[in-house]
Specification:
Elements (H helix, E strand, L loop, with lengths): L3 H30 L3 H27 L19 H28 L3 H31 L3 H11 L8
Helix pairs in contact: 1-2, 1-3, 2-5, 3-4, 4-5
This protein binds MU-OXO-diiron (FEO).
MU-OXO-diiron binds next to helix 1, helix 2 and helix 3.
Length: about 170
């Protein structure tokens, strides 16, 4: 069993993961409008991955005999000034999510909830990867910013991401 406080916090993270998916799907749609199908593909795969993260919380809440309570998903931003601005937003968002995961781990430690702490460690590692990917993308986007040839190459590269990759 998990405490009521932990149940609420886990449900909150489920919402945050689904929101992340919504945000990245919104970025995918923005890139489609900008005729950057490769960028859109990368964001779409990322959105699907976020929904999988949400499902990990869904399953864990149920396995612990707690209840899943779905709440409203905030509407995401729909426009960005440039692809670079969108990637800056990705990094900023992932840092925020890392903070949320850290808060959950702190709660698990405070409550001596070892099982939840153990469950959360996957996300601690995942956030290292998420921030790393976001920083790499941002640096590529900085190089390509304003250079059509480099943007074309980057669009091609991001178009190759498949759902099985992280
Ligand atoms: Fe589920 Fe991008 O963190």
């Amino acid at each position: 069993m998990v405490s009521e406080k932990m149940e609420k916090a886990l449900n909150g993270q489920l919402n945050a993961e689904v929101y992340s998916g919504y945000l990245y799907l919104s970025m995918a749609a923005y890139f489609e409008d900008e005729d950057l199908a490769g960028f859109a593909n990368w964001m779409r795969v990322q959105a699907e991955e976020e929904l999988e993260h949400g499902m990990k919380f869904y399953d864990y809440i149920i396995r612990r005999g707690a209840s899943v309570t779905l709440t409203a998903i905030d509407a995401p931003q729909t426009q960005w000034d440039s692809p670079l601005k969108a990637f800056e937003h990705v990094l900023e968002h992932e840092k925020m999510v890392s903070g949320l995961i850290d808060d959950l781990v702190n709660l698990a430690i405070e409550e001596k909830d070892h099982a939840t702490n153990n469950f959360l460690q996957w996300f601690v590692e995942e956030q290292v990867e998420e921030e790393e990917n976001a920083m790499e993308l941002l640096s590529k986007a900085k190089f390509a910013d304003g250079d059509n040839r480099l943007m074309y190459e980057l669009n091609k590269e991001l178009g190759e991401r498949s759902p099985s990759e992280d």
